[in-house]
Amino acid sequence: MVEKEIDWAAIASHPKFVELHQAKMRFLVGLWVFGATSYFLLLVGAISFPDLFNARIFGRLNFGYLFCLFQFVLAWAIAIVYTRKSNREFDPLTSELVEMIVKEKCQ
Amino acid sequence: MRYMFLPLLMVLIFGAPALAADAPVKAAEGVANVAAAVAAKAPSGVAAAPQLQAAAAAKPPAPAGKKMQTNRAFTISMFLLIIVATAGIVVWASKSTTTASDYYAAGGGISGMQNGWAIAGDFLSAATFLGITGLMSLFGPDGFMYSVGIIISFLTILLIIAEPCRNAGKYTLGDILAFRSSSRVVRAVAALSAVVVSIFYLLGQMVGAGKLMQLLLGIPYKVSIIGVGALIIVYVALGGMKATTWVQIIKAALLMFTGVILSAGILWKSGFSLLAFFDSVATSPGIQDHVRGVMKHPVAQPGFDYGQRFLELGLFFKNPLDQVSLGLAWILGAAGLPHVMMRFFTVPNAKEARKSVVASMFLIGLFLIMVSFLGFGAALYVTPQKISALDKGGNMAGLMIAQYIGGGAGTVTGDLLLAFVCAVAFATILAVVSGLVLASSAAIAHDLYVNVIKKGKADQGTQIRVARVASFFVGAIAIVLGIACENLNIAQLVGLALAVVASANFPVLIFALFWKRFNSAGIIAGLVVGTVVTIGILMVSPNMTYPKKVAADAQKIVLALEKKQSEAGALSAAELNTLEKARSDYSLNKDGTSLVGLDAPLFPLKNPGILSVPIGFLVTIAATLLFGNRREEEMFEELFVRQTTGYGVAKAVKH
């Protein structure tokens, strides 16, 4: 098995790996907190702030209903942003870095 | 093994309609009895628990014993079509299921897009489809707020769970938890937790399925449960993950197709103008009357726009804390459901796992938005009065609007469309329950048998055989419990499953993936305490029946009627009946206590999440810090690098 020869600790403690992982976590957690906050604002606001949520925006459509629709758009937007960022940045950087560290350690 | 099931399958395919054919009269009686029994037990009616996931079809039909007017020939042939098509898939899939990896994870050979459709299928249960349509047709956009919970729960799945799980796991949650420790106790606890959660979830679906079949086809409840259960055992035992996935994909496609047809039909009726559509909803006299009733205004308040109120939030959900509690269960709970996690092991790598989550987010989002049109459309064209006359929870709204869009009851197109939607609902039940049975049997066979009892030493043939036997037993348990819980208010079971996962499985999973010092003590304490505390809070919550409260309500009726009697001199026969019943309710319940001996709920909310989630996290952290384990800390680096990079996975998958 190949895995037995991998020095996992060396990869995990490599400064570049640590840096990349922290950047990725900041990005992920940031998106998650943003999405979750807006969701809880909807849940609480719908009952606690009826004046704002019942304000009519388009014809009969009110703020609360449009906020619900917005949550779907937001979720999709987060999905797209994350996919692009991963495909362009995180995925190639990670595999490059791991290959590099493994090579370094084997030599 | 395989041939053992064939006769059973035959009996099912040809037996169910035959039974159905002679059963209508008995079934109608059954329906009325069940309805009466449950109506007596659940006086809350409209203010039912917000966990409507399982509420679809779980609620009894209206006390009058009214039934959906269906064309039996159409409905039965559509059901048979679904059974034959899915059975075909199972036979096809069983031919290529030869290793444990084939059985649990379809050999890792499902593409991201296919898996996306299958995940969409897992989330879009009959309860989601029928329950949310019903809630919206009776209470407006509050049902839509429920849909938002589903789509938002995907943020956790996408950003935190999917890729690390694909990289670190093999078939089950137990694989990830047991990565760092070889402790067999960890495996056993993880397996038990997966089985408990899946059974809760499954029970909600099974009882819902039985009630739906009873209502649509007139098949007696017990026969429906046994039939559905047996069919699912055959599917899961023979076809494993590959068949389950393809049944799920086809059903998701059927459901999307249904959504498109019905919402297009509704928009067409209003000239494809959304604003005109909402205008007609708000100006519909039926809806205005219904909202006035919901708000308990006996006389219309001058100047109050009841139609507009129907388009506003907060007609169903009233308590912001309960909302936050439910929200927590969604955003943390859905991500850790065993049958959802298992889906990520069917794709070859993390990138495909990500793709599958994104695909399912678009599918589910589009479907839920279409469902919102169905809900409003049902309110506008069928009217809330007719919907709640057939079923108080509104669970028949989706089917009634289908019949209406097709041309109404009695027309060929109306009956055909209704039969089609019923058959899709049936396919949905089959697919969702199959996924759940597979997840529990994987926990039993892979975690308990192979890794705990056999210490990981079992050949492929044995592993599959054990998994098949396990799925047989899980299915049998589901049938028995399904029959036993016929008259139970199971609406809370799905909500309970989500709350348990959010308070027990989720903290443990997150720490296992991201916290270096996490260890076996934390896993065991987190899973056990989280589950027990959540169930415990539920036992003292308003979801239980409190006899003293029932007695107090009965006493109010008695007093009101006695007052009327003394004033008016006499009561009508119906009123006398009510009085008699209220008196007996009072004397039966006045000294009673709830299941755990309480007079009134200790915990004020219906959803335990807001208390049980923090407890789950704290207990997990405390146990971890109390019982440090150096070896497990050292193993973290391997798990951590694997889960973040996916390094070494490609080799690990090809056993």
List the uncertain runs of chain A: none
Query: What is the end-to-end distance of chain A?
Result: 19 Å
Helical proportion of chain B, percent range: over 70%
Biggest chain contact: A-B, 54 and 54 residues
Count of DSSP helices of chain B?
27
Q: Number of DSSP strands of chain B?
A: 0
Q: Please, what is the average pLDDT of chain A?
A: 86
**What is the percentage of strand-forming residues of chain A?**
under 5%
* Helix/strand class of chain A: mainly alpha
H/E order of the elements of chain B? Answer: HHHHHHHHHHHHHHHHHHHHHHHHHHH
User: Could you say which overall geometry of chain B the principal axes of the C-alpha atoms support?
Assistant: globular
Specify Rg of chain A, calculated over alpha carbons. 22 Å
- What composes the largest sheet of chain A? 2 strands, antiparallel
Write structural notes for this entry.
The complex is a heterodimer of chains A (107) and B (655). Chain A has 107 residues and is mainly alpha-helical. Chain A has helices at 8-13, 15-48, 50-53, 63-106; strands spanning 56-58, 61-62. A two-stranded antiparallel ribbon of chain A has the order 1-2. In chain A, a hairpin with a 2-residue loop joins β1 (56-58) and β2. The longest helix of chain A has 44 residues, at 63-106. The mean pLDDT of chain A is 86. Chain B is 75% helix and 0% strand. Chain B has 27 helices and no strands. Chain B has helices spanning 2-22, 24-41, 72-95, 100-105, 112-123, 126-139, 142-168, 173-177, 184-217, 221-269, 274-283, 285-294, 306-310, 320-333, 338-343, 350-382, 384-390, 397-406, 412-453, 460-484, 491-514, 520-539, 547-568, 573-589, 609-626, 630-645, 649-653. In chain B, α3 (72-95) packs parallel to α19 and α10 (221-269) crosses α19 (412-453). Chain B is globular, with a radius of gyration of 25 Å. The chains are: A mainly alpha (107), B mainly alpha (655).
Please provide a brief summary of the model:
The complex is a heterodimer of chains A (107) and B (655). Chain A is mostly helical and 107 residues long. Chain A has helices at residues 8-13, 15-48, 50-53, 63-106; strands spanning 56-58, 61-62.
